[in-house]
Amino acid sequence: MTERVSKIAIIGAGAVGATVAYASMIRGVAKKLAIYDVNRAKVDAEVLDLNHGLQFVPMATLEGSDDIGVCAGADVIVITAGAKQKPGQTRMELAEANVALCRSLVPQLLKVAPDALLLVVTNPVDVLTYVVQKLSGLPTRRVLGSGTVLDSSRFRFLLARHLNVAVQNVHAFIAGEHGDSELPLWSVASVGGVPLMQWAVPGRARLTDEDRRHIFDNVRNAAYHVIQGKGATNYAIGLATAQILEALLHDEQRVLPVSSRLEGYLGIQDVCMSVPSIVNRGGVEAVLELPLNEAEREGLKHSADTIRKAIRTLGF
User: Fold this and answer.
1) Residues within the annotated binding site?
2) Could you tell me which residues are annotated as the binding site for beta-D-fructose 1,6-bisphosphate?
């Protein structure tokens, strides 16, 4: 039997969309990739540049167009198109313009790829994940956002650097909004099986309260620093999205803090935000109810209220 060929469609040929395609090619996530953008010259140039590198990556085919039909038959559609976050601008301030884009885009996507999973990367990602799920009418598991996968990676990197251990051995999550109300789940973080709050290895740094504040401040403000310096974040979110795509297309059962619609999670209702979730070929299989402390539970509820307020303001 021949193996089914998976297809990824990427909406938007900007810095993030092109980098998602690049990271997916290098990692061999799918055999078919397509990029859609209303700017034909831009999408043609990005696809040509990427195709020139095919010799150096796992074999795939890549096409691009300003015709939505290029997305036909996609297994996963990655939505990266939208207004770009400007220096000093919060993700929530982006919401109105990008919601209008989704109203137009989602029905077109469902027409050409009715069986696709929808992966939202455009900011504010939690608001837009909710909007896309509502507009699409798809089951909640089939619509997810990149959420705090990137934030959690930033968190693990800073912890690993402080403790002088490999980042792969740090297990820690940022949860809630991908934005200012997000929070670190200190109580369930661990390093090599050792609870982070009990870390006391001779010759290695410990975490003081001030260290924790400093690390989390750097996580929460990381995007603003990058945007101020280079205008956009693209490399890390490209790699983060490629990992989510691997979990989806390769049916990995991977635990990732993606954004999805929560109903009854620790008392949280009718909002999309990030908590550790099992991700597989069907989308978000399950969300994990972690043994959080009271402050973390309250922090998640506050984050949910922040996102829900934005959603209601937009009429959803």
Assistant:
1) 12-17, 37, 42, 82-83, 85, 91, 98, 104, 121-126, 146, 151-154, 156, 171, 233
2) 156, 171
Cα–chain center distance at 41? 27
Read off the pLDDT of residues 96-122 as tens digits, 9 standing for 90 and up: 889 989 999 999 999 999 999 999 999
pTM: 0.95
Q: Residue 159 belongs to what domain range? A: 149-313
Residues 184 and 106 reside in one and the same domain: no
Q: Would you state the torsion angle of the CA atoms of residues 81, 87, 93, 94, taken in this order, to the nearest 10 degrees? A: -10
124, 145, 166 - which closes a domain: 145
Both 202 and 53 in one domain: the answer is no
**Residue 246, in any domain of the structure:** yes
Active-site residue, 225 included: no
Picking from 224, 216, 225, 121, the residue whose alpha carbon sits closest to that of residue 175 is: 216
Domain ends where: 126, 145, 164?
145
> Could you read off the pLDDT of 242-290 as tens digits, one per residue?
999 999 999 999 999 999 999 999 999 999 999 999 999 999 999 999 9
Active-site residue identified among 178, 214, 225, 302: 178
Same structural domain, 11 and 134:
yes
**Residue 80's closest CA among 21, 148, 154, 139?**
21
The answer on 154 and 128 residing in a single domain is no
